Amino acid sequence: MKATKQIGWVVAATMAVLASRGAAQQTSQNADAKAQAPAAKREIVVSLKDRKLALVENGQVLKIYSVAVGKPSTPSPEGTFTIERRVENPTYHHNGKTVPPGPANPVGTRWMGLSIKGYGIHGTNEPNSIGKAASHGCIRMAKADLEALYPQVAVGETVELVGHRDDETARLFGNGAAPAPTPQPQLAKTAPAPTVPAATTPTVTSSSANSAMTATASAILTGAL
After folding, report:
1. Going by DSSP bridges, is the β-strand pair 60-70/133-135 parallel, antiparallel, or unpaired?
2. Which of 1, 23, 83, 223 has the most CB atoms around it within 10 Å of its CB?
3. What are the helix (H) ranges across the chain?
């Protein structure tokens, strides 16, 4: 009887050891499979013509955002760059002026500096500029869009700024065709009404000259906004 119990314990112990080894082997195989699987390749593509930014993973568009790009006098650079720096709630410095994080900060709540000095992807304190050619060369984003994109992008990932239409930009952003003009209503022709002479009174036109100062400040992080 004792011998039978001992045999049972040995068998149970042996099965437990085998099960443990099997589990360890399966875990090792899963780890090897993950290590061998290619990492997802993400990149940012900006169409300067469309004023759009696409987050692309393995060639497929994950999200498209509207952005502001460089104005004609300070255009955004074209080419392929990488993200070199990521900063949350940056402080803006320029010519002795310091703007702490907050609504007045010209670069918003996030900064992603590019491998071309002085340029990056950032927020703005001028939300109405989004969708326009209005920056000093950087890519501006709306606050909510920027904060959604920021955690999805890592240092070292590619940023392509494209200034012309090609097959790739058409695939990512559409054909870029301008919307058709809205047809104007046609007025029915009527016979002209007889004119009646009327007394005329002099009109006085006043004009005032308004002067505007254009700030060309740039962030210490960026050199361009």
Report:
1. parallel
2. 83
3. 2-36, 143-149, 167-173
Q: Spot the catalytic one: 94, 122, 136, 164.
A: 122
- Strand intervals (E) in the chain: 42-47, 52-57, 60-70, 79-88, 92-94, 97-99, 110-114, 120-122, 133-135, 139-141, 158-162
Q: Quick count: other Cβ atoms within 10 Å of Cβ 160?
A: 17
Q: In the chain, where are the structural domains located?
A: 42-173
Q: How does pLDDT run across 171-202, given as a tens digit for each residue? A: 899 876 543 443 444 444 445 555 544 443 33
CA dist., res. 24 & res. 27, Å (int): 5
CB atoms within 10 A of CB 130: 20
Vertex 77: Cα angle to 72 and 79 (nearest 5): 140
- Known catalytic membership, residue 138: yes
Q: pLDDT tens digit string along 14-23?
A: 565 455 665 5
- H or E, element range at 69: strand 60-70
Q: Which amino acid is at 24?
A: A
pTM flag (> 0.85): no
Query: 93, 94, 136, 138: which one is catalytic?
Result: 138
Backbone φ and ψ for 17, nearest 5 degrees, come out as: -65, -45
Give the separation between CA 10 and CA 42, rounded to whole angstroms.
Answer: 54
pLDDT at position 96: 87
Question: Is domain 42-173 in CATH 1.20.1250.20, yes or no?
Answer: no
Tokens of residue 20, six digits: 């443990």
Beta pairing partners, 81:
159
Which of 177, 176, 222, 224 has its CA nearest to residue 64?
Answer: 176
pLDDT at 68 over 90: yes
